[in-house]
Amino acid sequence: MDTATPTPSTSPVVARLIGTPEAPLFVDVRKAEDFAASEYFIPGAIRWNYDAGDAPPAELADATTAVAYCVKGLHVGITGAEKLREKSLDASFLEGGLRQWMENGAISVRKRPDLGVTGESVSRWVTRARPKIDRIACPWLVRRFIDPRAQFFYVPTNEVFAFAKANNAVAYDIPGAPLEHDGELCSFDSFLHAFELKSAALDRLASIVRGADTDALNLAPQSAGLLAVSLGFSKNIAEDHAMLDAMMPVYDALYRWALDATDEKHNWKPA
User: Fold this and answer.
1) 98 and 123: one domain?
2) Label partner for 21 (CA 20 to 30 A): which of 91, 120, 183, 245?
3) Which of 53, 83, 109 is the last residue in one of the domains?
4) Tens digits of per-residue pLDDT, 107-119?
5) pLDDT tens digit string along 201-241?
6) Count of domains observed in the chain
7) Are residues 137 and 71 in the same domain?
8) Judgement on whether residues 235 and 131 belong to the same structural domain of the protein
9) pTM value?
10) pLDDT over 90 at 21, yes or no
11) What order of strands is seen across the sheet that includes strand 124-128?
């Protein structure tokens, strides 16, 4: 990889890639004091404090493109991108840094240490076994937007809270959990609210998930389809993590439709 001075990436361009297969690996290279002073980070970002001599994150080995970002998009971010390019990554730096990103209204994640999400450590989550909709949609959201390294556990209903306490995990989608249904809203909505994830595409997806999960199929035409696909996968797949792995591409596709294809029609008819 050419180690010449990296080029800048602009937030309006790369922000639209978040949550899609084309998304680069965002690498948060802010200095420790700047990182600690901020309540937000870019969705899916991996933390690397190269300034403190930290070892490069393991996730770099699986990445091909990366965007390093600091506070203002100046020396710290540029140097971070240079170091990434030394590791054979096609790396750029975020023009204007996180400050410009936030000012542009691009999607961001609020840190929630009380929920195990700090932007640095790996979060751990536990819920009821035999997931179908909400207990798949929430892990998808976490891995694509909040913490790509997150760990998920499925246990019998009566063991959820004991497991959470014993394993430093956060319970979700069960009454009494920090993140659960709230009136007509489902746990997916609660995750969006807790981490202040705001985008039109995620709002569209939330309506679909809510309709499928709460038997409110009138909320979105796609809710009935998600319900059918989820129940079908559940009948075909007995192991919960295998179910999660199988359904991740379904939510990837629904999100991409919500982002880029809502106006596209398919109405071919034979002559």
Assistant:
1) no
2) 120
3) 109
4) 999 999 999 999 9
5) 999 999 999 999 999 999 999 999 999 999 999 999 999 99
6) 2
7) no
8) yes
9) 0.94
10) no
11) 151-155, 124-128, 170-171
Q: How far is 34 from 233, CA to CA, in rounded Å?
A: 44
- The residues, any chain, with a CB within 8 Å of residue 19's CB and separated by 6 or more, are 43, 44, 144, 145, 201, 252, 255, 259
Q: What pLDDT does residue 268 have?
A: 85
* Domain assignment of residue 37, given as a range: 8-109
pLDDT recorded at residue 88: 87
Cα-only R_g, the chain = 20
Q: What share of the chain is helix, strand, coil (3-state, %, to 5)?
A: 45, 15, 40
Query: What single string gives the DSSP state of each residue in 1-70?
Result: ---SPPPEE-HHHHHTTTTSTT--EEEE---HHHHHH-SEE-TT-EE--GGGTPPPPGGGGG-SEEEEE-
The angle that helices 221-236 and 240-256 make with each other, rounded to 10 degrees, is 160
Angle at CA of residue 242, ends 197 and 255, nearest 5°: 30
Mark whether 31 and 124 lie in a shared domain: no
Domain boundary among the residues 76, 91, 109 is at 109
Q: Which two tokens stand for residue 153?
A: 């556990």
> Token pair for residue 128?
């009821």
Which one, of 221, 233, 227, lies nearest residue 257 by Cα?
221
The answer to whether 253 and 201 have CB atoms below 8 angstroms apart is: no
**Residue 38 counted as domain residue:** yes
- Are 130 and 232 part of one and the same domain? yes
Q: Are residues 256 and 163 in the same domain?
A: yes
Same domain, 100 and 123: no
Alpha helix segments (H runs only) across 63-186:
75-85, 97-103, 134-141, 160-166
